[in-house]
Amino acid sequence: MAEEKEQLVYSDTPAPEGIKGKLGMVGPGIIFAAAALGSGETIINPHNGAKFGLLVLWIPFFVTLLTKMWVSERVGRYTLATGKTFVEGLFDLGVIGKLVIWVMIMPLVVIQFFTGQGWPLGVGASVMGMFFPVGAIPTVGIRIVATITILVIWWMLTQKEYPIIEKIVIGLVLLVLLPSVAIAVIALGPDMKTILALFDISPLWTHFTQAPKDLAYIANSLAWCGSGMVGMAAYSYWVIEKGYHKGGKEGRVLLSDKVYDGWSKTYLTDIYGGYVVVFLIAALIMLNSVLVLFPYKLVPTGTDVMIISASQLTIPLGEWAKYLWLIGTASTLFVTPVAYYDGVARLVSDALLKLFPNTMEKYGEPKIRKTLISVFCVGAILMTWGLSPLGPYPLKVVSAFSYIDGLPYMVLLAIFSAVLVQKFVPANRRGGVINLIGAIFTTIVFIYFTWVFNEYGVGFLSFLKP
Questions:
Q1: What percentage of the chain exceeds 90 in pLDDT?
Q2: Which of 261, 319, 351, 385 has a CA between 20 and 30 Å from the CA of residue 107?
Q3: How crowded is the C-beta side of 104, counted as CA atoms within 13 Å?
Q4: What is the pLDDT of residue 194?
Q5: Where residue 249 falls among pLDDT bands split at 50, 70, 90?
Q6: How far are the Cα atoms of 50, 60, 123, 227, 329 from residue 133, in angstroms, in the given order?
Q7: Where are the beta strands (DSSP E) in 413-465?
Q8: Beta-carbon neighbour count of residue 161 at 10 Å?
Q9: What is the DSSP string of 362-398?
């Protein structure tokens, strides 16, 4: 380690100043937001909103800004301060860290191959829902749109570099956010009681503790909403791509003490800003379901949640709202796999290079990463058309992994992200103690809800049941 430190170059490049300068450096947080948005925001949360109404409007606030945000901050903080990725940090922990890589990262190769079709199929359902009513949407049409979606994602991630992908993702996230704001807030005009319910977490200690079986629905939302382990761990790599840790310099560079605090503020603007975006979109989509589904006692499941929500919007607003809403859900479910496939490929390629250096180094990270993306896309197409050994649409497998990724894996990520910062980052570079406290709080919350899900939910091995 001492020899490595002697080779380091320290950058004195100052961080951008002012709000405008910091916003100009935002990027990895929006990529993360794209990875975080998905089935949890477009299906699970709206389903729960339709079922429970105001009682669950607090979930996006709790999941994003009170728990998961702190863990992502620890992941990114480690990279900002050391210039190393999350997997590198785990590897440096020795035997325990390598075990975590094997348990948490390496299975992603197989899992992503078999579960990557869910979002593209959601895009297909949203697009076809613009032209066909619920129950009459042709399956082949959904599959064709999903296949086109997968091929576009493959082209973007294998033929384009990070700066271009970042710009595309930022544009698509805005395309998701604007319809959500326009419809849920401006057009539907919720009253103050409904808006305040977005921040009132008291039902967690009233209704849901008194009806413990209903806690399983909360566990579902915690697992699916605001990203799982994969998107949060991948944030480390997007920080590397953006160059926060080296102030725009090239090579093995770290920030000097002189400029570290300034770049730290830029970094925090990015990660906190990303979570605010996730919160806004998740909250507004859930708010829509409370306003247009709950009053009519409509509790749809699966992609029907999106289609029926869009149809219900025509009652108070007209046909335009239906199309605008479905454009938003299609954009959400397109942008998620762009970020997610990229994140998984970066995590796994890094793990392969660390665990098998003699075999993998001759190929290099870019080639390994792009090969993995191609493999994931092939798997997604096969699954879309029901050509895999698991049969068509293995929703149980998809769901089981989402729960594992969002609950027990989240516990591991919360613990080890905090450990990496405390062990390898100098005290003056760790950020405020509130971030550590938040990571510990998140660990406790997700240990509890991991138990809740196994006790009252379908359980982590539900996909093995007939």
A1: 65
A2: 385
A3: 30
A4: 93
A5: low
A6: 20, 29, 16, 30, 16
A7: none
A8: 9
A9: TT-HHHHHHHHHHHHHHHHHHHHTT-STT-S--HHHH
Residue 387 has φ and ψ, to the nearest 5°, of -105, 10
- What distance in Å separates the CA atoms of residue 50 and residue 58, rounded to the nearest whole number? 14
Residue 123 and residue 127: Cα distance in Å, rounded? 6
**Angle between helix 304-313 and helix 257-292 axes, rounded to 10 deg:** 70
User: Furthest-apart CA pair in the chain: how many Å?
Assistant: 69
Mean pLDDT of 261-268: 94
Instruction: Dump pLDDT digits (tens) for 59-71.
Output: 999 999 999 999 9
Q: Is the pLDDT of residue 437 over 60?
A: yes
- What does the pLDDT look like over 376-414, one tens digit per residue? 999 999 888 888 666 544 556 666 777 888 899 999 999
- How far apart, in whole angstroms, are the C-alpha atoms of residue 329 and residue 172? 11
Pick the closest to residue 72 from 104, 45, 32 (CA basis).
32
- In which element (H, E) is residue 11 found? strand 9-11
Residue 348 burial class via C-beta count within 10 angstroms: exposed 0-12, middle 13-18, buried 19 and up: buried
DSSP 3-state assignment of 10?
strand
The answer to whether 439 and 417 are in contact (CB under 8 A) is yes
Cα(343)–Cα(349) distance, integer angstroms: 10
Query: Are 309 and 292 spatial neighbours (Cβ–Cβ below 8 Å)?
Result: yes
- Is the pLDDT at 5 greater than 70? The verdict is no
Global pTM reads: 0.93
Output the CA angle 228-383-324, nearest 5 degrees: 65
Q: Are 151 and 377 within 8 A, CB to CB?
A: yes
Answer whether 246's CB lies under 8 Å from 12's CB: no
Cα dihedral value 336, 341, 344, 345, nearest 10: -150
Name the residue ranges covered by the structural domains of the chain. 9-464
C-alpha–C-alpha distance, residues 38 and 282, integer Å: 9
Q: Which element (helix H / strand E) includes 67?
A: none
Class of domain 9-464: mainly alpha
And the tokens for 273? 């800003």
Burial pattern 437-447, b for ≥16 Cβ within 10 A else e, equals ebbeebbebbb
Calculate the average pLDDT of the chain: 89
